[in-house]
Amino acid sequence: MIQLFGHRVYTHVLRLGLAAILLGSLITPTAHAKKADEHAECSVLKGALTQAWQGYKTNYVQVDGRVRDPFAQDISTSESQAYGMLRAVWMDDRTTFDSIYEWARNNLRVRGDKLMAWKWGRRQSLPALGSGVVSKHNGGEINKPEKAQPEWGVLDTTSASDADEDMALALILAHQRWGNAAYLEDAQLVLTDIWEKQVTKTKYYGHVLLPGDFKHEENFWLINPSYFWPLAYRVFAEVDPKHVAGHDWEALIESTYEILNESVGKSRTGLPPNWLKVAKSGAPKNQRVDLFWEADNERSDYGYDAIRTHWRVGMDYMLTGSRQAKSMLYATNFLERYWWIRRALPSPLSIDGILRVFPNDVPPSHAIYGATLPHLMLAYPTIGHAIVNDYILDPLGNDGIWQPKFDYYAQNWLWLGLWTYTGQHCGSEELRQSRSLRDNLLHWVSWGAAS
Questions:
Q1: Residues spanned by the domain of 50
Q2: Are 186 and 107 in contact (CB under 8 A)?
Q3: What pLDDT score does 146 carry?
Q4: Is 168 a member of any domain?
Q5: pTM score
C-alpha cells in the first residue's frame, strides 16, 4: 500500500465523497475545508505519480536510456521508448527524456527513415565467427565469409505507428517545455514519414492510419483502432509545415471516429476490438468495417490493445470537448454493468462478451484500470473514483511499483490513468480556458505555480 502522507486522509475523503453521492450530500463543507481537502487529495495524487515514476526508472529504464521489459526476454520496443518519453516530458524530467530518446535514435532508427524499428533484443541464433555462406559466382560456388551479428540488436524492422505518433507528440511537448528547436524539427520529420508510410487513402473512409508498414491482405486493410489518437492529430496539424500541402490530419480525426463507431456497433458488448478489417473495395456498406468472427480467432477481442482506445478518445474529449469523442464514451454501458456485478473490469472479452480464460499462472493485466479511467471518470465518476482508490493508489508499493512486477504494460497504463485523473481532478478550469491545446496537454498536471 502506498505510504504517502495524507493517503489515509485521501481514502477517507474518497469514501465520504462516494457516500455523499449516494446519500445526496447531507453535509455541505465550508469553502475553506473543501479547499483544504482538495489540496490534500492532490498532494497524494501527485506524490503517487512521482513515486511511480521513480520506481519505473529504477526498475525498467537503464542508465543509457533503454526501456526494458525484464520479464519478456528483456526486450525493448519503440512503444516502450515512446511511453518513457511521454512520461518523462510530463514529469519535467529532461535528463531521462534525452537518454531514452538518444537510445531510440541510436538503436531503433535503422530503417533509413525517421520511423523506429519496433522490436529490439537478444538474437536467438548467431553465425559463428569465421563461418560463411555459399553463393554462386560465374557459374561456380565460393565460400563468402560473413561477419557475426552482435548478440543484441533489432529483431524486427517493421514500424509501429502508435509508437511513432506517441514519440512525435513527446518531441513536440518537449519543445514546448524546454524550448530546444531540435525536438520540434525532428518531430516534423517523423510526421512526414508517418503520413507518407503509415497513412493510406482508402476507398470508403479517406485517409486512415495503418498500424505499420507491413504487407496487408489483398481484400482488406488490417487496422488496430487503439493506435488512433485524434488528440495527437489536432496537435500535429498545428505544427506540421506540410499540413496545408497535403498532410490532412483532420481527415484522420474523421476516419478515426467513423471507423470506431462502426466497429463498436458490431460487437455485442459495444466495446472496441483489438483488430478489425477495413475493406479495400467491393464491400456492401455494412461490411466496409468488419471484425474477425471466426470462433477460434481472437484478433477482434476486447483486450490488451483495445483498452487503450478509451484513454486516447477520453483525452480528446477532456481537452477539446469533441462531440465525436463524447459519443464514443457513452456508446455502451457494458463496463458499468460489469463493474457493479463484479467490482472489477473484464479483459479480454470475446466479441460475444465471453471472458477469455487465462492459464492459472498468468493473471489478467491490471492495465485496463488505467487505460479505461478517462472513460469511466467522465461517464461513471463513482466507478472512476473507486478504481483510483482500490486499483491504483492502494496497490502502489513503497518501491513505486504495482504488482505483479512483471506486468510492464500495467506499470505504464496505471500511471497514465492516474496522470489523467490527477489533471482532471486538480487542474484549474479557468487556467485551461486561457491556454492553447499544446499548453493544456503539456501542463495537464501542474507541478508548480509557473504551470
A1: 1-60+334-342+364-451
A2: no
A3: 52
A4: no
A5: 0.88
